[in-house]
Amino acid sequence: MYQPIILGSILFVTLYILKRMRSPKLNMPPLVRYKYPIIGHTYDFLTNSEEFFKQCRKEYGDIFSLYVWGEVRTFIGKEHFQEVLSRDDSFVFGKQVDLDSIFKHNIKFTNRPKVLKDYVLNKLKLYTERMQESLNIATQKYIGDCDEPNVIHNIYPMITNIISNPLANIFIGEEESQYEEVIVTFSELTIDTTKLLRIPPILNFIYPGLQAFINNSILSLGIYNPAINHQKVLIKHLKNQFCKRLQEKVKYGDSWKRPDDFIQNIMEEESFDPNNINYEEIADKLCLLIVVLVHTTANSCTHAIMNLASRPEYMQELYEEQLEVQKEADENGILPFEALNNMKKLDSFIKESFRLSESVATLPHVTTKDYTFSNGLQVPKDHSIYLYVDDIYLDESLQGPNPQSFEPFRHLNTNASASKVSKNYVVFGGGKHACPGRQLAVNEIKFFLHNIILKYNLRTESGKIEGPKMIGTIKLPSNAGIIFEKRK
Fold first, then answer.
1. Which of 151, 296, 344, 464 has the highest CB neighbour number within 10 Å of its CB?
2. How many domains does the chain have?
3. What backbone torsions phi and psi does residue 78 show, to the nearest 5 degrees?
4. Which of 388, 408, 427 is nearest to 347 (CA)?
5. Which residues have a Cβ under 8 Å from the Cβ of 323 and sit 6 or more positions away?
């Protein structure tokens, strides 16, 4: 009795999919042929994305569409990706999870890039000493002296903790960043808030967007909030600092020493009312910035460490450069901000690591209206667009010889640092909406690796090159063991 229902459902879904895929009104990008009904290209997308995308590009050209997780997604290659990044009137960055449903006060936080720029990015020179001190203390805490070789597996959580220390210092202040629960919040908030994204969106095969609708409904209705405990931690420590600072400012008057950090800038906004402090709103602002900054920085740094350990033959050359740079340090071993510009080989190494650890396809966008690409192909409003970045990063005309191989000094003398976006480097996006925190992330990684290279010899436990793990199009750092050994 269930067979007619099952067959009818399959027929209904198939007809619905075909209707969506083939719009008679638009000259849509070619839909890649698929062999599996209902799931379309999802299996190939998950299990063999690198080779699958190469084949699609070869057969269908620079722009093609796939049916993945219940929706048609269009992928844009090297010839047209700049149209997506530069046309703000036609494409907006697509949200994979509704953060405003988790951090409800962020609806008012509309000037996020400006706040980050004014309160943090314009003061990177001011934060140089604190960043290095925090990184050095955290490195000693989590890695140690390593007088005897120390094998650490799955270093991503450890790197996240280390990266979180200076960021907590800059955002919530030197005193509160000493508390372990604050570091835990900075390091684990992103993972906790994106738990729903790790659920395979199988409901989208019933109706496109159904999984996201249910996830966001759960969040917006307050049925489940993965960030609630972290918000409580931040509110607790915000209260500590705000109360202390307000009292000390009254007590010491003009002799009060003003703290330099993000929350002090918040306290000096015109809208800040010391008699009616909205701690929840300020905590939500912090949460959003933590989600944006910590995971991406830690993930990229972990890839770089793994690439360094996998290629010990380059360690000596990098070590010699860092020895020269270290001559600029003060009596406490702290480098001036300008020393970052002299880490040219390290910068090239980091950029190459970024290039080859980027996802196969990423930077999701959504069309705000019907759009016609310069080649005549068209996509409708509310259509999902992804950049096929491997088409950029594995192209010899854009990257130079052997673009598929890791060449650590490929980017020397190119006048293009690891934080600079360009037509052949879109790790941080592009156009007006390029990641505003990219300089902060690169600076922190450079200071951290500078210290690591001077302090340790690194190698993989296997003695082999440990490449990233693939989950669909995403490249995750390997969890293979790395041997840290104190330099003699």
1. 296
2. 1
3. -65, -25
4. 408
5. 454
**169 Cβ contact list (under 8 Å, min separation 6):** 130, 131, 134, 177, 261
Cβ contacts of residue 135 below 8 Å, gap of 6+?
A: 162, 165, 166, 444, 447, 448, 451
Asked if 475 and 468 count as a contact pair (C-beta separation under 8 A), the reply is yes
- Supply the range of the domain harboring residue 298: 2-486
Q: What distance, in Å, lies between the first and last C-alpha atoms of the chain?
A: 76
pLDDT category, 200, cuts 50, 70, 90? confident
Cβ pair 301, 307 in contact under 8 A: no
CA dihedral 189, 191, 194, 197 (to 10 degrees): 180
Q: Which residues are annotated as a binding site for heme?
A: 435
CA–CA gap between residue 57 and residue 48 (Å, rounded): 14
* Per-residue confidence (pLDDT) for residue 5, from 0 to 100: 46
Tell me, what CATH number does 417's domain have? 1.10.630.10
pLDDT, tens digit (0-9, with 9 covering 90-100), for 304-335 = 999 999 999 999 999 999 999 999 999 999 99
Which band of pLDDT confidence, cut at 50, 70 and 90, is reported for residue 277?
very high
Beta strands in 79-192 (DSSP E): 91-93, 150-152
- Tokens of residue 309, six digits: 């350990």
Would you say 409 and 349 are in contact if contact means Cβ atoms under 8 Å apart?
Answer: yes
Q: What are 307's two structure tokens? A: 């690439």
For residue 129, give the 3-state DSSP assignment.
Answer: helix
3-state secondary structure of 425: strand
For 139-148, the pLDDT digits (tens) are 999 999 999 9
| Sign, CA torsion 170/172/175/181 | negative
Q: Using CA atoms in the order 426, 427, 428, 430, what is the torsion angle rounded to 10 degrees?
A: 10
Distances (CA, A) of 459 to 103, 359, 470, 487: 41, 25, 22, 13
Q: What digits encode the pLDDT tens for the residues 251-268?
A: 999 999 999 999 999 999
107-166 residue pLDDT tens: 667 777 888 889 999 999 999 999 999 999 999 999 999 999 999 999 999 999 999 999
Annotated binding site: 435
pTM for the predicted model, two decimal places? 0.91
